[in-house]
Structures are given as C-alpha cells and as structure tokens.
Amino acid sequence: MEEIKQQLREIRAWLGPVGNVQITDGEVSLRNEGEVITLIGYAREIGLVPMLMTHGETFRRKPGLLERLMVEGGLSEISVHIDTTQRGRRDHYATARTEPELDPLRAEFAEMIREARRKTGRPLTAASTVTVTRGNLEGVSGIVRFFLTHADAFKMVSFQPLAEVGRTNPELRGVDPDELWERIAEGAGDPDIRRGEGWLGHPACTRFVQGVAVNRAKDRGPRLVPIFRRDQPDEMGALNEYFDRAGGLSFRLDTTSQALRRLAGFAMRHGMFALTRLLPQLIKLCWRAGTLRANYFSIVSHHFMSAAEIATPLGQERLNACAFQVPINGEMKSMCAVNALGLREEFYRAGKPALVEV
C-alpha cells in the first residue's frame, strides 16, 4: 500500500493539483475493499482525481460495492471496459462475438451508474473503454450510437486500437486511426466530426472530440455536436482566450461551497469575457444542436505504439510529448514504453505491487 501511495505522490508532483490518475492494472476491484477505499481516498486527499478502471464484473457480483466506494472512499469517476476482446466474464456475455450482443451489458452498467447516483446522492462520472481490432471495427459505429443514447449515464467512450506489444492474442490486428474515425463519424451522425478534434500530448497519440449528445425523436438517431470547430475562427478564438485566462480552473474536487466561491472569483475576474465571448458561443452551440436538452459527451481514441513504432523518429517524438505516464522507480515513463519495451515485466520481476497511471 505504501509503495502505491508513493506512486500517487509522484504523479501529484508531476501533474500538480486536480490531475487525473487512473487506478488500474489487473482488476483493482478484486483487491481488499478497504484497500481500494484507502487508495481512492488518499488520491483525493493529496489533490488528485482518481478514476477506477474496471471490467465491472465485481460490481455485478457484489451489489452495493460501487456505492460503498463512492460514500466511504469518495469515488467520483469510473471507467468500465466492455468489448468482444475481453476475457473474464462468466455468463453468456463471455461468448459474445459481435459488439451489438454486448449492448444489453452496456445498458446494465448504465442503469447501475444511475442507481448508484440515486442511492448515494453523490456525483459519479462514468466512461467506457473499448479495444478496437480488425474483427470488431464494424461495431464501432453502433457503440458510439449506444453511448450517445445513454449520455446521461456515460460521459465518455475511449477507443483504443490494438497495439502489438506481446501481451495480446497474436491473431488480433489493430486498425488505422483514420479507419477508426470514419466509423466514429458514422456513429456520431457527422461525417465532418473531426472538425471539432483536439489532442493530448502528440497529435498522433490521443485524439478527442468534446460535444453534446443530442437525441431527438424527429432525428434519425443520436448525434454528437462538437462544442467547438476548428474551421470557425470565432470559436477557436474564444476557446484560446478562455485557456489563457482560466485554463487551470477546476471544480472537480470542490464541495458545493468551494465551487460557489471559485465561480464567484471567476465572475469577478472574467465576467465581461464570459458575457461577451463565452455566452455568444454557448448560444451558437445551442442553435447548432437545435435543443437545450443535451448532455455533455466526449469521444476519445488513444493510439499506443508497438516497439517497432517507438524505434522510429516519429515514435521518439511521440514519447517525448507523452501525456500518459506512470511512475516506475521514481521516474515518469510513457505508457507506450511500459507496454512495448518490457518495463512492465521488469517492474513485476522486482516484486512491485501495482501500476498507477496518469
């Protein structure tokens, strides 16, 4: 436990306040419940926002566990991995061969998240991760449509094309990023969805589109309306000015009173900017969406590298810009290096207990 806490302290020093940390590696929910509560609470105590990464099976088998982590540990973010490549499920979902066969499972988790919020009266932000291979690429569009339909429960879906790092089924193959985003665009109802694209670290590493999920009966299906578009100078100008003024602003660890004080401080310093620059963009977004009834949603793709890719000049450039890192022996290491260059195996051979990722 102390070694894991040390990892958390190293991540806190690297990220600063209110940084994102993923409690992951193996299935964390199989640890002693008291330990998981302690780790989540400790991460929050030192100023990190912990997200528990899970396949979710333990929560299905132990009703009430999710609520306990929320109330006793302060868990406020969770990510559930669901796709046909996954191992470890014990019921009929273990034999699913197509992604639509798993939609009832996704719906079960969506209701579990809603119920946990109702029972505890506490917020819980939920995401889902999906490994993408040549075999399930066709199902990506349907997955996007599912999560847009359930955007009241889930706020993000993250697609992760398979990378050849020696720990996966050798018969599986990854997909090209552009192929993936063609399927995402189809599911999002917008062939030009990437006009709203941003990225973390290197542009070839983590791509995302933040938007609002719109579900209206007269439409043919759910769609994602990007919050900003790169072909709109006024939107990009307002966004860049916001980052210059308040890029580090966060309410995610605040109590209600702390959030109100922080919001009042923002209004005092930047009230005119909010009225003259942000409000018009909000009105424009509502007009574009065609409704005031919409939920925030983000679609992400994270592209890990193989050892061969890392060895290229582009691979080294990506490593140097990496925003997704893990502390190993006192140093922050790129997750691509951990996955593909044997650092994970070295870590375990040394008898270390777990990896905690940024």
Describe the structure.
This protein is an alpha/beta fold. It has a single domain, classed as TIM Barrel (Alpha-Beta Barrel), CATH 3.20.20. The chain has 13 helices and 12 strands. The strands form 2 sheets. Strands 1, 2, 3, 4, 5, 6, 7, 8, 9 and 12 form a 10-stranded mixed β-sheet that branches. α6 crosses α7. The longest helix is centred in the last third of the chain and has 34 residues, at 256-289. The two termini are 18 Å apart. The model has no long low-confidence stretch (mean pLDDT 92).
CATH class: Alpha Beta
The backbone outline, from C-alpha atoms, is globular
- The SSE order reads HEHEHHEHEHEHEEEHHEHHEEHHE
- Percent helix, as a range, is 40-55%
Number of domains: 1
Return the structural class.
alpha/beta
Low-confidence stretches: none
What's the N-to-C terminus distance? Answer: 18 Å
Named CATH architecture:
Alpha-Beta Barrel
The total of beta strands comes to 12
Question: How is the topology of this model organized?
Answer:
Layout: H1 2-15, E1 19-23, H2 33-45, E2 48-54, H3 57-61, H4 65-73, E3 77-81, H5 103-120, E4 125-132, H6 140-149, E5 154-161, H7 177-188, E6 197-200, E7 206-214, E8 223-226, H8 233-246, H9 256-289, E9 295-302, H10 307-310, H11 313-320, E10 325-328, E11 331-334, H12 335-340, H13 343-349, E12 356-357
